[in-house]
Specification:
By secondary structure, this protein is of the alpha/beta class. Helices cover 33% and strands 28% of the residues. A hairpin with a 2-residue loop joins strand 6 and strand 7.
């Protein structure tokens, strides 16, 4: 049976996946929560890493040591850089990079969906009027701006884990697939400074967020909207993941 390792940063992303599968069994992979389930004859291990590239890389390394998967998947939500992506659209990243002080680092190539898996994902997302597009997973701290988009950076999305997972996966020679659904963007921004709201280890400072809300109560409707958008994005990322892993051939064969 083929073994798949899946990395989700947040519990909301994990729970969206678990709602779509049957008989998941909870366990631990080192210090990380792990949920194991079978899907289309595959043995799937879903690890919740926590936010940030360091935690994600550690979770991926711990999982690879335990189960030696044939494929890793980074799944979850992300923020659109450009205004042409809609809330709930899913980006299958062809490459990833680290964003530092607004500058994009070198690209690392990721695995690509097979034609059958792509079509299955796209069809599954149609019910929610969402699209599947290819793009770039830009791993960053909080909500940074990209000063310039280099050649090859199509449909960039900001997230906090994929580049860390990619580095760990490359060390073991394991392909990495990235599926990220849009939860925010230029037309529906996060209503607070996400970078300022995190400590040095990517933990959210809830006291700082609450203080900001109390000082700016007009943020409350925006936070409600953000909650709805995040839930939709987590659900669509899970839908795309399950659709892809339900196909006999998940990845495009490299020529």
């Amino acid at each position: 049976m083929e073994t798949i390792g899946i990395i989700a940063a947040m519990s909301q992303e994990r729970e969206a996946v678990l709602r779509l599968v049957e008989e998941a069994k909870r366990s631990l992979s080192g210090p990380f929560r792990c949920d194991r389930f079978h899907l289309a004859g595959r043995d799937c291990w879903l690890v919740t890493s926590g936010m940030g590239p360091r935690r994600a890389a550690q979770a991926a390394s711990t999982l690879m040591e335990a189960i030696h998967p044939g494929l890793l998947v980074s799944v979850g939500i992300a923020g659109a850089v450009n205004a042409d992506l809609e809330i709930g659209d899913v980006v299958a990243a062809r490459n990833t990079c680290v964003l530092d002080e607004g500058l994009a680092g070198p690209f690392q190539t990721l695995a690509s969906l097979s034609e059958a898996a792509w079509q299955a994902c796209a069809q599954a997302l149609l019910a929610g009027e969402a699209r599947l597009v290819s793009g770039t997973a830009v791993t960053t701290r909080g909500s940074q701006y990209i000063q310039s988009q280099p050649d090859g950076m199509t449909n960039p999305v900001l997230e906090m884990e994929t580049a860390g997972i990619a580095q760990a996966a490359a060390q073991q020679g394991i392909p990495l697939l990235s599926l990220r659904a849009i939860s925010d963007g230029p037309r529906s921004p996060i209503p607070f400074d996400l970078q300022a709201a995190m400590d040095d280890d990517y933990n959210l400072r809830m006291g700082k967020i609450i203080t900001s809300i109390l000082g700016h109560p007009q943020m409350i409707p925006q936070l409600v909207r953000m909650g709805r958008n995040t839930a939709k994005a987590a659900e669509n990322a899970a839908i795309a993941l399950v659709a892809a892993l339900s196909q006999p051939d998940v990845l495009l064969l490299q020529r």
